[in-house]
Amino acid sequence: YDVFDTLSDRLSATFKNLRGKGRLSQQDIDDTLREIRRALLEADVSLQAVRPFVAAVRARAEGAEVSKALNPAQQIVKIVNEELVGILGGETRRLRFAKNPPTVIMLAGLQGAGKTTLAGKLARWLKTEGHTPILVAADLQRPNAVTQLQVVGERAGVPVFAPEPGNGVGDPVKVAKDSVDFAKTKMHDVVIVDTAGRLGIDAELMQQAADIRDAVRPDEILFVLDAMIGQNAVETALAFQDGVGFDGVVLTKLDGDARGGAALSVREVTGKPVMFASSGEKLEDFDVFHPERMAGRILD
Ligand code: GDP
């Protein structure tokens, strides 16, 4: 993912300085950690995530972790790699499906975060996994949103549940509720509810999302986060955690050229795992989030 390019380059430059050293002095470790800390902060990883990360690497680097098979530089890389996997959530957190279908997945996030696009990607992916999802247009804020979801649904080959003109228009809570009944009768096993987002955090938006949540009791609430919004990501995530709550995070725009620290902070700050990654405008630019692979790419 391009968002990590700068961080990758900085880290590999740091590790290069250690190459060929037979033994690391305290000074080597201090210098390396300072560089790692700086690289993370410059990539927009929040201080709240950087501190425990650097402390953990330090403790292990200074500790008795000596391996005969690895030289000191390789050992540091190994430690950083493992700590990156940890900060990214450790294990892959998979979707939980309801015992009694339909499984209801609700998407929340700021406008422009990539929710509607993500809804289509998720639906398409679920279809390839053998599910029979529907998309639900519960974003009735933007005039264009319903049409946009219909376009996405068509591309994904997935039906879209949208308000009938004159029947419940303007009431996203009712639309969401009706969609679950619809899914039950039509044997759709997953319902993906796209909700409205505003450009900024907004009490009314939060309340609407909370009302939809209470009406459909989602099995999974996914917070959709634009990886390019930098340091604001943490604040936004916390506001959504507070206002709506969520079970997992979807990172979008990982193909962007910005500093991708948001991705590395969100798990530490919210305690919620990143579950999916979105990296382009095409429906196929989507994958389950694998912390180990992601760490591997950052250190590649
Ligand atoms: P919503 O307001 O949260 O529903 O966001 P949209 O799904 O409408 O996405 C906002 C813009 O971001 C659109 O132009 C999308 O094509 C674009 N977009 C969404 N996901 C990605 C992504 O992963 N990468 C890139 N480059 N663009 C994306």
From TrEMBL:
Keywords annotated in UniProt: Cytoplasm, GTP-binding, Hydrolase, Nucleotide-binding, Ribonucleoprotein, RNA-binding, Signal recognition particle
Domain SRP54-type proteins GTP-binding: residue ranges: 273-286
Residues annotated for GTP binding in this entry: 109-116, 194-198, 252-255
Keyword Transmembrane helix belongs to the record: no
Primary localization: cytoplasm
Catalyzed chemical reaction(s): GTP + H2O = GDP + phosphate + H(+)
Class of the enzyme per the UniProt entry, highest EC level: hydrolase
Subcellular localization: Cytoplasm
Catalytic activity, EC: 3.6.5.4
Keyword Thylakoid among record annotations: no
Role according to the record: Involved in targeting and insertion of nascent membrane proteins into the cytoplasmic membrane. Binds to the hydrophobic signal sequence of the ribosome-nascent chain (RNC) as it emerges from the ribosomes. The SRP-RNC complex is then targeted to the cytoplasmic membrane where it interacts with the SRP receptor FtsY.
Quaternary context: Part of the signal recognition particle protein translocation system, which is composed of SRP and FtsY.
Domain remark from Swiss-Prot or TrEMBL: Composed of three domains: the N-terminal N domain, which is responsible for interactions with the ribosome, the central G domain, which binds GTP, and the C-terminal M domain, which binds the RNA and the signal sequence of the RNC.
Protein family (similarity comment): Belongs to the GTP-binding SRP family. SRP54 subfamily.
Protein name: Signal recognition particle protein
Organism: Catenulispora yoronensis
Upper classification of the organism: Bacteria, Bacillati, Actinomycetota, Actinomycetes, Catenulisporales
Residue range from the parent sequence: 20 to 319 of 537
